[in-house]
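Input sequence (438 aa), recorded before submission:
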Amino acid sequence: MATDVKVPTLGESITEATIGQWLKQPGDAVAQDEPIASLETDKVSVEVNSPVAGTLGEQLFKEGDTVEVGAVIARVGEGGAAVPSAPKAEEAKPAEPSTGQPEATVSGGAVNPTGAGEQVRPRDESAEAHDAALTLSPAVRRAVLEHHVDPSAIKGSGKDGRITKDDVLAAAKDKDSAPAPVEAKGSPPAESTHAPQAAAPSLGGDRKEERVKMTRLRQTIATRLKEAQNTAALLTTFNDVDMTAVIEARAKYKDLFEKKHGIRLGFMGFFVKAVALAARDVPSVNARIEGDEIVYSNFLDVSVAVSAPKGLVVPVIRSADAMSFAEIEKTIADFGKKAKDGTLSMDEMKGGTFTISNGGVFGSLLSTPIINPPQSAVLGMHRIEERPVVKDGQIVARPMMYLALSYDHRLVDGREAVTFLVRVKEAIEDPTRLLIDL
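Predicted structure, token format:
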């Protein structure tokens, strides 16, 4: 008896998703509530669990296909009963004539680097089991082809030992940094040094292109960013801030803070607190436009831009203005872990009245961030670097950071934007202001 596996309810107003990755293959044993597929929606990835224990039979959709809520995407045979798998749409193509150069070919989700004329020996059962663990997502498969690495030699760090894109990049880096073989002293030169060199292949043979369908998350990001540019009157103002006081405060209290709260004291807690303080003086940066009305909020829900494997996600710290440093840091750390694992929920990314984006963690010196509609402002943080500044008539080196505030000029005036950024600068350069509400 086979049981249908259906697309679950994905959230308010979401009616369809994309098959991101099959986590189980036909013939694999599955436990009840074990994830068998990953769906990509406009905002998050959602796992589809098996309703029963048994064996996965046919997969009714391929990776990249769009499916609607309630659609049957697979069938599971209960009690170990096998379910006939649907025939594959594409049969294996016959091997093309050899060009004389080894080429990496994809087979069963794994890359098999075979040389021209090299015979592939029959596999044993252990090899087949190993290949089953090498089921690669489109992004990982693309990285394998780009960096010419053998996935069978990579130890996966993902769920169930699956290979992630980061694993491929690390393997490629290790391969590039491996020392070249050294010839033994006194040994004759390699034969290739005296043999005629083969003519270099033409550029036309090595130039390749690959078309990859955009994920639903990437499509949504593109749509929303373009919508912001088309709708809002975007403008960015800049300032720089001396991070000396914050760095000294962290160095002085980081051990006590971590011992008491179980979390490291980061920079983001200071900036969230500084934004909350500045927003009281300039409430328009925490407001939004709805039709011909301006909606002001007496709370601060900070959207924190977090990098995830499939794109940028923006979870929301609710009532950040009422949180302690420890609560802010714990919330951000939790969001970062969930973003990496792809387990952020819809509710965690809804709303938000103001956004903070920290491009400095990637080395950005300066940028003009784009607002997250319907919000009216976003604060961009950047990397800290020592620069010469004048203090008390003396040129000294200070750890400086550029700050950028992008805002909707329809709602926020230039004077208000500059005032807000100055308030943030003052609070960071003198963190005591955060304690006594100045």
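Checked by second reader. The first strand starts at residue 2 and ends at 6.
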